Amino acid sequence: MKLVLASASPRRKALLAQIGVRFDVNAVDICEDVLPNESPVPYVTRVALAKAEAGYALAKPQQVVLGADTSVILDGNIIGKPQNQADAVNMLMSLSGRTHQVITAVALVGSEQTHSFVVTTDVTFRALSREECELYWATGEPADKAGSYGIQGLGAIFVDHINGSYSSVVGLPLSETAELLKVADVEIWHTEEM
Fold first, then answer.
1. Cβ of 40: how many Cβ atoms within 10 Å?
2. Which of 73, 98, 170, 193 is the most exposed place for a label (fewest CB within 10 A)?
3. Which stretches in the chain have pLDDT values below 50?
4. What is the pLDDT of residue 194?
5. Facing residues of 101 across strands?
6. What is the pLDDT of residue 192?
7. Partners of residue 124 on adjacent β-strands
8. What pLDDT, in 10s, does the model give residues 101-154?
């Protein structure tokens, strides 16, 4: 089976490449608004599945499509991407010295199969100062990140520790995704150039 990634995320592309998966990219544009009274796990699951289904609608025969969505959760509330510097700094200060959850849902859609799963990781931040949050914003990194930080980049210095899957916090839980790909007969650890 040939895999299609229904995402333009450079982080998800890099993670799939890291485990030697050959894939095409078909970025889809779907509404990612949270529905009224929608809780985090149903939300990320719905969005991941919608991405995979939208990608599958454009796929060729013998292709399976992988969709994923990652959300940062604090006190049961979904923390999205920042609108501006003030929003980003406020988000980061709300995470300061506390533990939050990062939930990633992954969905795989093919002609005869639909599978999905969710991975939750606890992330604990050290205490942050408003000044360092403002300096971090100036790097440009937090602008397109849920929760206003990237654990795989400069934002790593805020993280005291995690309990769970590092790759899930980046955007794609690799262990669980590899198992899902095996079920769909998608080869991992491919050693030739993609």
1. 20
2. 193
3. 194
4. 44
5. 73, 122
6. 62
7. 99, 161
8. 999 999 999 988 899 999 999 999 999 999 999 999 999 999 999 999 999 999
81-to-1, 27, 72 alpha-carbon distances in Å = 34, 19, 9
Q: What residues contact residue 193 under an 8 Å CB cut-off, 6+ apart?
A: none
Nearest to 126, CA basis, from 158, 166, 94: 158
DSSP β-bridge partners for residue 65: 4, 109
Tokens 């990320």 found at: 44
3-state secondary structure the chain: CEEEECCCCHHHHHHHHHCCCCEEECCCCCCCCCCCCCCHHHHHHHHHHHHHHHHHHCCCCCEEEEEEEEEEEECCEEECCCCCHHHHHHHHHHHCCCEEEEEEEEEEEECCEEEEEEEEEEEEECCCCHHHHHHHHHCCHHHHCHHHCCCCCHHHHHEEEEECCHHHHHCCCHHHHHHHHHHCCCCCCCCCCC
pLDDT score, position 89: 98
Residues 168, 154, 146, 184, CA torsion sign: negative
Here the tokens at position 190 are: 């491919």
| Exposure letters 122-145 (e unless 16+ CB within 10 A, then b) | ebebeebeeeebeebbeeebbeeb
Catalytic-labelled residue, pool 29, 69, 87, 144:
69
* Active-site residue flag, 29: no
